[in-house]
Every structure is written in structure tokens, then in C-alpha cells.
Amino acid sequence: MISVADRSCHTSASRALASLLLFAGSICLASSAFAEGRFQDPLDVPARVHTSVSGRPLMSIARAGASLVAVGSRGLIITSNDKGRNWVQAKVPVQSDLLAVHFPTPTEGWAVGHNGVVLHSVDAGRTWKSQLDGRISGPAFKAFYEAMGPEGAPAAKQLALNYQAGPALPFLDVWFEDSKKGYAVGSFGMIMATTDGGGHWEPWLHKIDNPEYLNLNAIHDIGGDIYVVGERGQIYRLDRGNDRFIRTDTGYLGSLFGVVGSGKRIIVYGLRGTVYRATVKGGRWAPLSMPNQHTITAGISWNSGIALVNTAGELLVTKKATNPIQFRICPPAKPMRLTGIVALDDKSFVVTGLDGVRIETVCDAP
Predict the structure, then answer these.
(1) Which domain covers residue 358, as residue numbers?
(2) Is 68 inside any structural domain?
(3) Domain tally for the chain?
(4) pTM for this structure?
């Protein structure tokens, strides 16, 4: 396991959405920085302070008690205490792109991104410290598996490939059950867990049925069950008795980017508007008919239903427990590639995207 206590703040962040490439053609800024002609590692450079932050590229948003916290490009983290109307930049020790954020309590949260960075906040997102990055985890995780002998050899070989070009690979999502126990997942099969709030992180490549080390794009808890989704339509559910993620193959060959739901209403979503619903809890999955083929990037449980957002800037909502589940589209007032969503009430959301953050209202049903 890796101890990050008493270490200096090595950090970095950004989201290389391995399959979706949301940043392609827009902001996927390189994980290096130059100042006055001199190279500066983004792990060692604090995020630049901007005078205007609400229109900058953002990749994820979460609630932190009564506050909202959004993360994005070049280490940008912004917070709002007035339901998304005004935003203030947080103090962040890195300049790498951040991809995901989660607060299991009103004050304590984690953000992850490129260069294997993990950031931690204890004040509802106003300030952040580095817990981990690829420069630390790369050699430590490889040593972890080398010490296992033949059993750890496949994971050690994969980690050698993952880190052969340096610490650039991202963690794509993070989820904490409480202030102590959490997980992060990422590109090329990366997965790790902590039981002490990020003081130590243990690689879990040997605890998930992913022998091909496919990208793991998202992790989420639904009704006490933890799911991971990724490439080739794979869904993994944590078997708590054996401390292992068990794989289910949906039959879909594309990438899945998220899982959302409550009770018996569990869906996964991804490329080309693909949505599958659970027909047996954690077991069998069946495709849903969707209104279009725009890639779905984020979703939440909302008002006894589900709300999704896509790369066309649309809201897709279902409020009633209809069977089959049916979504209706709310077109955007202004197109934007959306990346995140939280609900404000039963009629409005705060959404993030490559053009910043804004408030969207649910359209009237036809």
C-alpha cells in the first residue's frame, strides 16, 4: 500500500476520456506547462487564477452539502454557494486537467484526473491538497505486484506499460462510500482503493475481473451496491463478501461512461446514446430504446426518475416509474458538450460542459 502521509504535495489532474475524447478538438491541453520558456511539470505548478471562471471548460460537478463543486481543465476547481448563480475559484496545487469529483460528506471530498492525481478537500472544495499522483503510485504499485510473485506478474506487466511514458495516465472517476472508504478507476484497467480517507491507496487490478485491462470509466454506488463500467460494454459489481468486482458482459461492444439509478431502476449509458437497464439486480442487462444517438456523458437520479446529459447539450429526463423506461428530450437553449449534472430542484439542474457551467430548466412534457 502507498502512504501519502508526510509527503510533499505532488499533484496533477485532467481527464483523457480514453474512449469518449470529450476534449478532442477543444481543450485537451497537454500535461506539461511552459513559463518563460522553461518547462514546468503541471504536478508542481498551482492552478492559474482566473478573473472569470464560469465559462471555462469543466468536466464534472458534485454537491458538497449546500455548495456545488465543479472541476475542469488545467487544475480548475470552482465552487458556488448560491445554487450555481455565482462561482469562485478554489485553491488547487496542480495545473493538470481534472476529470471527476465526489463529496461523501458536506465538507470532505476528492477529485481525480490526469497524471494519476488525487486531490483532497476538507472545506467543501474551497482548498485542496494532493494525496497521490503517478510519480508516487507508478513505482509503488509495480513494487506491490512484484512482491506478490507469479500471482502479481500480469498486473506488474500491465503497470509497466501504463507508466512507461511517465505518470500521464488519468484516473477517470472517484467514489467514496464515506469519509474513509473509497475507490478510483481509470485508463487501461487502473483501479485502487483506500480505507483511511486516502492516507494509503492499494491497487486493485487483482480484485476485478478485467484480465484485458480495459478502460474503467466510472464508478458509482446504487442502493449499497458499487458498480464500475467501462469499455466493451463491461459492467463490474462489487462482491463485498469476496472483496472483488465481478464482471457482467452486456453484449454491447462500445464504451459505457456511467451508471445511475435507485432501487430496481438501474441503468448504464455511453457511446452513441446507448443505454442498458438492469433486468436482474447486478446480473442481466437489456438495451433501452433511446430518442437519438448522441453520446451520453453524465446522469443522476432525480425526482423519482433519471436525468441524463449528452454531447449535443440535451437533457434526457424520465420522472415516472414507467415500464419500459422512456426518456424525453429537452433541447438546449444554447448547444454545449455537456459533461456533468446535479439537480437543484424538481425543475432545474446545474450542468457543466466544455463551455463552462449554467442552469438548465426541464422543458414541459409534450
Answers:
(1) 289-366
(2) no
(3) 1
(4) 0.90
